[in-house]
């Protein structure tokens, strides 16, 4: 292989040269051995193995064809000596040995020499290296990347996509390092496309490494000629990023232009750039890919697993060589049976007529001796996320129904539902297909028709509005039919809270239902409105001044800080409705005093709120309305931008007048002016309202100047409540009157509200600017400030740092900090609950099993070859239950099982289950123990028996429980049963036999099987047993069983009764490790232990006394304390001698503090009955 012309992954060079000889056979045309000479580069280590595999497979379908492998290694490709040696060997084998069939070479330097020689001497040559652009009469081309096969695939794909004209973008430099690239012979591809009526309109040649900016300037050549672009820019998809980016820069959208990437090199597995950088999918979107996937990785995986290849090129050549062996096998097999098929001069005609079943699928060769293999066609779509953005449109298929006996055809997959884009724009490249003039006329006609329709619609709408009752002179009069009420009894929210709050639950349900009697939420013209409802006694008589006020409110009073007045409406049931626009965030009253809406950081907004109120008042005071007249916190609404809008202006003076004349009253017979709002009105104004007679003279009682002063009084109340977040007066509620009509003002509540405001009393701990206090006092006095002065004071004192948005952001930051703390607390609570759940789960299941269930892993059954199962049952439990209360039975079992569980946990067993009084324990699972399982169960059984001998029945003093125990050893299998209430259980013949040992046992005896007894004798001989004899067991027949008696010290069984003072706490029973001597614990407590404990207690008390005396000593008491200490030491020394030598029994009989504590714990286990047969305490 030439180092300067064919770089095989820079290091791999292969020079196979294979020669076959067709040996003349007998009259039966049987072939014997066909020798094969293989010229191979030493770096190719798999050629021999591939040959042997192919030889064996050829023999399977052609037993008469036997290949022999003769290896001849050649030198490096491109060296004159090596190339000449190959040519010499070729001539020698041809003339001397009559080898007429050649496979190879794989060296580019010798490729043309061999092609010319085989054509000259009429020798069959099989090409496995690279594409050959010329027709060769004696060559069979096995290359899937040949220029002919590439062109045939392009023709099939373009016809299948219905494209007849394309543009070509070629980068010849991009294939300089690829000796096997068919793109170097692109002229052959062009000729084949032209022969099949595929027109190449433009060809753009690029240089390697060009930037997208340069490319974007060059691709404009395609604008007037084509929309489908065939791209030949390299062997990897990453080579096409710059060009596709250039299309984006040029605004060549993929809806108009269609890039088609052509990859003739078989990479075995296509690597998509967006797997590493997902942003690249944007430039590849709507791009087609035609790539060589003849050797699908799924089909060749078995072949690749047998060999190791150093490069992709070596792999492809090996695959083509492997298929060539099969092709030769079919060819020679057919030639043996039909000699007319064998032809050295024109073998392609014979081979193309055969059905060749290759190792990876059918092999098609046309009559020109060129292999035909289909490529894959794919489409990139960035919305197809479930398939890595790739849609497979199908594979170009091969067939023999054509004159050349091997052709390609492409049909889009029906399952893809893909519609191919057009290769020509809808109106042509220059708009010649479409008549633009007609389009313009059509657009103009459509626009004119739309305009006429809009004019007609507006006219009809105005006519309908006028016929429904709205008039130009009275725009404030709303037809009742246009109001769509919302059922407040089914919604949850305050009357004047935000629309969002209608979906939230409120605590004060009764108060809400009271508000719903007179206040409603509705929609008018698809906008939310707030409606006040009143009952009309007589028909409302609108005076000229009233109509003028309503007209001004509806048509002229428009300001950023005024709420929109919608109008009045009347129904047929004698009700009048006053309609106002509903604001998004409710009223200031809701935000200051409603607990559900209160914000901790709201103190930063007082200045903004007060400024908005004063702006609205200033506008009203300078308008034709002249004053507000109903300024309350409930009428200060907040829109979606947190701007205060004043509502309720103008209408209050009409309601007061109509009530004075007896024209209206409330439906629930409560006052017209709600008591919760009485403190906002000047007492002088309320006095005038009470004196109204309903005549024309009433309108002169409230002058505009007086009305403005009353507004400033109301503003003083607002200032107090907004700044101090405190109600001006206590809560006042309205009680419906017994008579048929309501009143204007509740006199009793008004007397309570009139006690305020002077003197002003600030809450403790609240600081307020002196200027604000002074203005507050003036608002309630005779020299009240006007709006302009109030605005100056508010702007000066409550100057806001930054904008309202800045304050909101600051408050949100504070809220977020609190939210983080709340989340942290909730997280800790969740973790604590999770821990509790884990503890409970670990009590129900083994930890290993519990962890697997938490991870969602599948629970598998585990087999334990070495395990021991213990069953126990209370004797006479049924009769005891019949004589006891249920709570007594539960208490009894709870106390017994607590002791049993403690013993099991200390000895290393595992409690499987409890059913009533039945108790099952396992040793050797879930943690496997090869030998120790039998020792664990024996210790548990003995300790449980001793425990019951001292466990007095709580509700039957003096009576004790009797149990049967039985266990067996053997193989068991265990697993988790159930999902909603999982249970860890074990099964097997050993488990069944253990249950039989218990049921066939005797009271206070521990029965075991022969196999368990043998395990004890082999591993733990310190346990003593006695034979029971032969018993009959259901299902198992006659069995020889034994009794477990206890623990032997030496060869003699030691039995010692428990004493009350020596009953140790079971929690102090240490686990008995395998290989250690038996631990005395509960079973082997001696008097020596008690002597030691007594001495240690005396010494401990002595030490404590010394430390206490040292702390209490003073300088004057040192001598006396020293003498007492000497005397104490003498006494203690005498006591020690006395305890150790004279009267040890007296010490043992004296109660100790520690012992008392242990005795209390010990009584949980029990004292009392002594049974020499059941006890297992050895004596000294």
From TrEMBL:
The keyword Nucleotide-binding applies. SUPFAM superfamilies: Nucleotide cyclase (SSF55073), Periplasmic binding protein-like I (SSF53822), Protein kinase-like (PK-like) (SSF56112). One of its GO terms (biological process) is phototransduction. It comes from the Eukaryota. InterPro entries: A/G_cyclase, Cyclic_nucleotide_synthase, Kinase-like_dom_sf, Nucleotide_cyclase, Peripla_BP_I, Prot_kinase_dom, Ser-Thr/Tyr_kinase_cat_dom. It is found in: Cell membrane. It is a single-pass membrane protein. Residues 486-798 form the Protein kinase domain. It catalyses: GTP = 3',5'-cyclic GMP + diphosphate. Keywords: Cell membrane, cGMP biosynthesis, Coiled coil, Glycoprotein, GTP-binding, Lyase, Magnesium, Membrane, Metal-binding, Nucleotide-binding, Signal, Transmembrane, Transmembrane helix. It holds the Pfam family PK_Tyr_Ser-Thr. Gene3D superfamilies: 3.40.50.2300, Nucleotide cyclase, Transferase(Phosphotransferase) domain 1. The chain crosses the membrane at residues 439-460. Residues 1088-1122 form a coiled coil. One of its GO terms (molecular function) is guanylate cyclase activity. GO terms for cellular component: dendrite; neuronal cell body; non-motile cilium; plasma membrane. Its EC number is 4.6.1.2. Residues 1149-1180 are annotated as: Disordered. The keyword Magnesium applies. This is guanylate cyclase. The gene is Cre-daf-11.
């Amino acid at each position: 292989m030439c180092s300067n012309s064919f770089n095989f992954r820079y290091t791999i060079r292969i020079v196979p040269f294979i020669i076959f000889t067709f040996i003349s056979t007998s009259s039966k045309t049987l072939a014997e051995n066909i020798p094969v000479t293989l010229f191979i580069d030493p770096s190719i280590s798999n050629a021999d193995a591939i040959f042997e595999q192919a030889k064996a497979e050829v023999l399977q379908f052609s037993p008469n064809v036997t290949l022999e492998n003769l290896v001849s290694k050649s030198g490096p490709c491109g060296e004159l000596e090596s190339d000449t040696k190959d040519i010499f060997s070729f001539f020698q084998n041809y003339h001397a040995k009559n080898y007429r069939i050649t496979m190879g070479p794989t060296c580019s330097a010798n490729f043309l020499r061999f092609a010319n020689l085989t054509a000259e001497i009429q020798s069959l040559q099989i090409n496995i290296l690279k594409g050959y652009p010329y027709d060769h009469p004696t060559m069979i081309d096995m290359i899937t990347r040949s220029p002919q096969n590439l062109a045939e695939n392009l023709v099939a794909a373009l016809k299948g996509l219905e494209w007849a004209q394309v543009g070509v973008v070629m980068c010849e430099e991009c294939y300089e390092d690829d000796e096997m690239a068919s793109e170097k012979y692109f002229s052959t591809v062009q000729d084949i496309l032209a022969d099949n009526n595929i027109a190449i309109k433009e060809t753009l040649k690029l240089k390697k490494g060009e930037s997208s900016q340069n490319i974007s300037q060059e691709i404009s050549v395609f604008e007037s000629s084509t929309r489908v672009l065939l791209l030949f820019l390299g062997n990897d998809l990453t080579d096409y990023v710059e060009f596709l980016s250039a299309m984006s820069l040029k605004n060549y959208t993929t809806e108009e232009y269609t890039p088609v990437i052509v990859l003739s090199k078989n990479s075995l597995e296509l690597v998509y750039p967006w797997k590493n950088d997902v942003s690249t999918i944007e430039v590849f979107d709507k791009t087609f890919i035609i790539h060589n996937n003849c050797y699908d990785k799924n089909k060749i995986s078995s072949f690749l697993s047998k060999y190791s290849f150093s490069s992709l090129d070596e792999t492809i050549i090996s695959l083509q060589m492997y298929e060539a062996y099969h092709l030769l096998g079919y060819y020679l097999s057919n030639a043996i049976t039909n000699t007319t098929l064998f032809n050295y001069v024109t073998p392609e005609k014979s081979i193309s007529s055969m059905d060749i079943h290759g190792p990876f699928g059918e092999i098609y060769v046309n009559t020109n001796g060129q292999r035909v293999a289909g490529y894959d066609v794919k489409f990139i779509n960035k919305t197809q996320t479930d398939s890595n953005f790739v849609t497979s449109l199908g594979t170009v298929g091969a067939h023999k129904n054509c004159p050349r006996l091997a052709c390609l055809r492409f049909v889009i997959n029906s399952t893809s539902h893909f519609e191919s884009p057009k290769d020509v724009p809808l109106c042509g490249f220059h708009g010649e297909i479409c008549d633009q003039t007609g389009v313009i006329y059509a657009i103009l006609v459509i626009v004119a028709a739309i305009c006429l329709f809009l004019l007609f619609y507006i006219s009809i709408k105005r006519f309908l509005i006028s016929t429904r009752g709205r008039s130009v002179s009275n725009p404030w009069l709303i037809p009742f039919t246009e109001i769509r009420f919302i059922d407040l009894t089914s919604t949850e929210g305050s009357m004047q809270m935000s629309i969002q709050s209608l979906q939230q639950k409120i605590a004060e349900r009764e108060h809400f239902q009271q508000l719903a009697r007179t206040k409603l939420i509705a929609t008018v013209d698809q906008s939310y409105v707030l409606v006040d409802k009143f009952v009309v006694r007589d028909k409302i008589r609108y005076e000229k001044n009233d109509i003028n006020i309503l007209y001004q409110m509806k048509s002229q009073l428009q300001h950023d800080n005024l709420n929109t007045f919608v109008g009045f409406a009347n129904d047929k049931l004698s009700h009048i409705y006053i309609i106002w626009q509903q604001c998004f965030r409710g009223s200031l009253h809701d935000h200051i005093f409603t607990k559900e809406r209160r914000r901790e950081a709201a103190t930063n907004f007082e200045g903004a709120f007060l400024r908005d109120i004063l702006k609205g008042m200033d506008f009203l005071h300078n308008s034709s309305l002249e004053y507000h007249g109903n300024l309350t916190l409930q009428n200060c609404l907040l829109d979606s931008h947190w701007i205060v809008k004043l509502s309720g202006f103008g209408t209050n003076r009409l309601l007061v007048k109509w009530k004075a004349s007896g024209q209206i009253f409330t439906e629930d017979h409560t006052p017209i002016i709600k008591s919760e709002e009485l403190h906002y009105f000047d007492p002088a104004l309320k006095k005038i309202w009470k004196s109204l007679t309903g005549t024309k003279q009433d309108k002169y009682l409230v002058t505009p100047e007086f009305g403005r002063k009353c507004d400033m009084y109301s503003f003083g109340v607002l200032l107090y409540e907004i700044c101090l977040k405190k109600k001006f007066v206590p809560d006042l509620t309205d009680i419906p009157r017994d008579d048929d009509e309501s009143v204007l003002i509740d006199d009793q509540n008004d007397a309570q509200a009139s006690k305020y405001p002077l003197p002003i009393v600030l809450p403790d701990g609240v600081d307020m600017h002196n200027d604000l206090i002074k203005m507050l006092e003036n608002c309630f006095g005779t020299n009240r400030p006007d709006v302009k002065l109030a605005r100056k004071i508010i702007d000066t004192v409550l100057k806001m740092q930054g904008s309202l948005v800045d304050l909101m952001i600051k408050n949100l930051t504070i809220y977020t900090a609190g939210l983080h703390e709340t989340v942290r607390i909730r997280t800790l609570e969740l973790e604590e609950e999770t821990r509790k759940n884990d503890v409970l789960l670990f009590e129900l299941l083994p930890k290993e099993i519990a962890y697997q269930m938490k991870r969602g892993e599948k629970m598998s059954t585990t087999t334990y070859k070495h395990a021991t199962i213990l069953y126990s049952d209370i004797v006479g439990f049924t009769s005891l239950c019949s004589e006891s209360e249920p709570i007594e039975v539960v208490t009894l079992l709870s106390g017994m099982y607590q002791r049993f569980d403690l013993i099991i946990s200390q000895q290393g067993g595992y409690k499987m289950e409890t059913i009533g009084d039945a108790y099952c324990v396992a040793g050797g699972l879930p943690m496997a123990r090869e030998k120790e399982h039998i020792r664990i169960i024996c210790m548990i059984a003995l300790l449980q028996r001793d425990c019951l001998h001292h466990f007095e029945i709580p509700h039957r003093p003096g009576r004790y429980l009797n149990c049967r125990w039985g266990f067996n050893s053997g193989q068991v299998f265990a697993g988790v049963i159930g999902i909603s209430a999982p249970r860890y259980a074990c099964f097997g013949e050993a488990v069944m036999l253990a249950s039989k040992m218990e049921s066939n046992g005797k009271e206070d005896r521990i029965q075991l099987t022969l196999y368990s007894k043998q395990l004890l004798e082999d591993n733990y001989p310190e346990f003593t047993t006695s034979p029971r004899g032969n018993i009959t067991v259901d299902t198992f027949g006659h069995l020889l069983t034994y009794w477990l008696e206890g623990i032997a010290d030496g060869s003699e069984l030691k039995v010692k009764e428990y004493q009350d003072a020596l009953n140790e706490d079971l929690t102090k029973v240490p686990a008995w490790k395998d290989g250690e001597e038996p631990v005395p614990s509960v079973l082997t407590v001696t008097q020596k232990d008690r002597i030691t404990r007594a001495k240690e207690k005396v010494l401990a008390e002595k030490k404590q006394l010394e430390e206490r005396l040292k702390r209490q000593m003073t300088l004057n008491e040192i001598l006396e304390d020293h003498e007492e200490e000497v005397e104490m030491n003498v006494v203690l020394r005498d006591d020690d001698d006395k305890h150790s030598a004279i009267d040890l029994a007296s010490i043992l009989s004296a109660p100790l503090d520690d012992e008392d504590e242990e005795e209390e714990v010990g009584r949980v286990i029990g004292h009392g009955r002594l049974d020499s047969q059941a006890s297992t305490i050895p004596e000294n």
